[in-house]
Amino acid sequence: MDWVTCAYSASCSGVARRPPGFCLSHLPPDELTEALAEMAPGRLLDLRGTVLDGDLLSRVLAATGARPGRARLDRATFTGDVRLSGVTFCGDVSLDGARFERLASFFGARFEGNVSLAGVRFARELSFHGVRVHGHVSLDRAVMARDALFSQAHFEHGLSCEQARFDGFALFDGASVGDGASFRGARFGRTLSFRKVRGHAGFECAHFAADAYLSATGRFSAVRARADACLDVAVAACGVDLRRVEVTGPTNLRLTDSQADLEGAVLHGPATVSGRGRSTLTSLRQVEAAELALSGLDLSACRFAGLAHPAGVRVRNCTFALTPRGVRVSLRWPMLRWFSRRRALADEHTVRGWGSPGDPGTTPERLAALYMELRARVDDQDTSADFAFAAMEMRRQAGRGWWLSLSWLLCGYGMRMGRAAAWFALLAAIAAAAMFWTSSSHAAPRHPPPHPSVHR
Fold it and tell me: How high is the pLDDT of residue 357?
């Protein structure tokens, strides 16, 4: 402790008042009245380490006109109910290491500065409902043993709950987190409702022991998070980072004009990713999901390489990348190549050298197997046919046999019959021209027989 403690007892850590060297809770009645009279609105309030029951706290708030200035309440202990409705803190508030043994209700309170609640323990319910904080709020390493209510709260410069523990229900619906909310390493023992929250949100390495319903209007990240039950994420107009997330129960990701990355995710339960507007999924690389439904998404830039269970994927109303169209000359056989536009995975662009040089790729052999698995999982017949063609293309790229090149050249693996018809027409034309030339060059000219000479 960086303050002089109370002389009443060695066990009392309350900040001493000079004279007589006692903390506020151990002052004699007359000296307590005198100390309270010295308090005034806007002045420093220093009650570090002090034990405050309900009556003493009420008298302190009354003495400050419910408008204390800078408040230093580190390691204070509140033994009674704390109700701060109508109280305005005009300066920064520090409650680091404090203990609330009963209800802690900040409902209706206003904070003009920053609020630090690092390491605080709330033994009963906590309410920040409707609280407005002009500064930043820190609940790092705080422990909330019962329900915690933060709905409709406004944190102008952000909220930090890193390594915090929420043992009861946690409700943040309708809150505004300003510069963003960070829950890195936090643990939620019961249901978390984080719906319709305005601002960025980060749940990196968080642990959800029960259902979690999350949303945000800014950047959203749950990298390496772990969910033991249902994980429901709904976002609008933001980027979603769910790399290496692990979910035991159902996963539901709803995107509206947003972009999501699921690389390395492990989804043990059924998973659904749906999109509205311009919603994009950028990566499914190394994803383990026994049941994964994709709908309404732009998958033109999505990486599928290393997808563990492609047979469990269902694709509906999604768009894929398109191959370039035109004629190209190559030093490899066949030297002259023409490409028709078809749907393809972004991984094929990398394999063929059409993508960015730094893009991670896969082998043509593996990509061929992936195409064959996915062709039966898409709802569009044209896309399925394009994937079947792409699988043969990848096998040809892998050098599976000269006959594949011949099949591609003659009839597009039996799936481009227009190409076979063109070859047939070309051969028919060549044969007809040859027959015509042969018949013309070898036909004997017919001359009329000579007339017999008449000798007289």
Answer: 54
Phi, psi of 266 (to 5 degrees): -120, 110
Preceding omega of 334 cis (within 30 degrees of 0): yes
DSSP summary character for residue 15? B
Distances (CA, A) of 165 to 12, 148, 189, 221, 440: 27, 10, 8, 19, 97
Neighbouring residues of 209: CB distance < 8 A, sequence distance ≥ 6: 187, 188, 189, 190, 228, 229
pLDDT of residue 133: 97
Identify the burial level of 365 via C-beta atoms within 10 angstroms of its C-beta, where 0-12 means exposed, 13-18 middle and 19 or more buried. Answer: middle
CA–CA separation, 449 and 454 (whole Å): 15
Q: Please tell me the distance from the alpha carbon of residue 421 to that of residue 83, in angstroms, as a whole number.
A: 85
Is residue 81 classed as helix, strand or coil in its secondary structure?
Answer: coil
Give the pLDDT of residue 283: 92
Pick the closest to residue 124 from 139, 103, 105, 149 (CA basis).
103
Neighbours of 28 (CB within 10 A): 10
- φ/ψ of 335, rounded to 5, equals -70, -35
The CA dihedral of 160, 163, 165, 170, to the nearest 10 degrees, is 40
Q: pLDDT at position 416, please?
A: 56
Query: Token match 């991670």: residue?
Result: 360
DSSP state of 18: T
372-427 pLDDT per residue, tens: 888 888 888 888 788 877 777 776 665 555 445 555 544 455 455 555 566 567 66
Nearest to 281 by CA among 315, 247, 246: 315
Would you say 388 and 375 are in contact if contact means Cβ atoms under 8 Å apart? yes
Q: How many CB atoms lie within 10 A of CB 116?
A: 23
Within the chain, which residues score under 70 in pLDDT?
A: 325-340, 352-361, 395-424, 426-427, 440-456
CA pair distance 264, 107, nearest whole angstrom: 42
**What share of the chain in percent tops pLDDT 90?**
62
Closest alpha carbon to 334 in 397, 387, 391, 420: 397
